[in-house]
Amino acid sequence: MPYFRKLTVALGLILAPVLGQVATAASVAAVPVTATVTSTADTRDIVQEIINVVGLKPRFELRAADIDNAAAVVYNGKRYILYSERFLMAINNAVHTDWAGVSILAHEIGHHLNGHTLSRSGSNPGDELEADEFSGFVLRKMGASMAEAQAAINLLSEEENSRSHPGRSYRLAAISKGWRSANNQLLASANGPQPDQRAIEPMRTKPRMAQQQAPRTTSAAQTASLDSRMVLSKVVFSKAPREQFYLTSRLHLVHLTKDGPKVVGRLAKTGNPDYPYYFESDYIKTVFISDEGLLVNRQGQQVGHLS
Question: Is 228 domain-assigned?
Fold first, then answer.
């Protein structure tokens, strides 16, 4: 995937003291972001792909600039992603994957989208880990492997913690967490029922008239609506294989009963990469979900699966 143009001659990689820093207006006052500088078309395409993954509009401006690596900054009330073209090309060559530069841009975009640049305190370990997790999530959605998503940080980060940045092992774990989260979403989407793609027809009458003329819906129709538009995955419990449980797009665990749908729990995160989620419920005992979609109880016994 040719995200960045390869150099015909290998560039020497110039490592900056920190990567992915959040700069304040005062610290970037000398950066000529108002000058006429343009990024390569390849870089703009990458940023657009990253934005498409998360479904948000880019409320920042991308600029090539004379800096050491890359940074998310606010200057004169405007948000920018600044980057060194030479640095991005060099890091790609150093780790032998174009995904390295993509991960750096995704990391900086994560700072903006998580609101880190609204603070004047600069970089801190918590914000850096959130941006790393965002980067891992985005790269999995775009098709990168775990190793490709971690390549840049593995090379550039320091082994020990500092006041502004966490150590390498913490950063790699954060990228892994984001990557696995996206991977679980993709697996659930592929294995679950496909949603109905038909759009709602625009109303051609006043809402009140339409309400008076509309036929009464039945419980069966309500169930069909849940199946086609709200379901992410079917949840099968080994001791109740005939009961209908579903995980919805709102991360609710729903039981379809004779009286209609009933919310009996919700999906929550554990922080454990092997069992990243569990069902939080007052109706059933705690059930953990493996990264392969298996349901496991506290004793480690398999009690069901997602399908």
Answer: yes
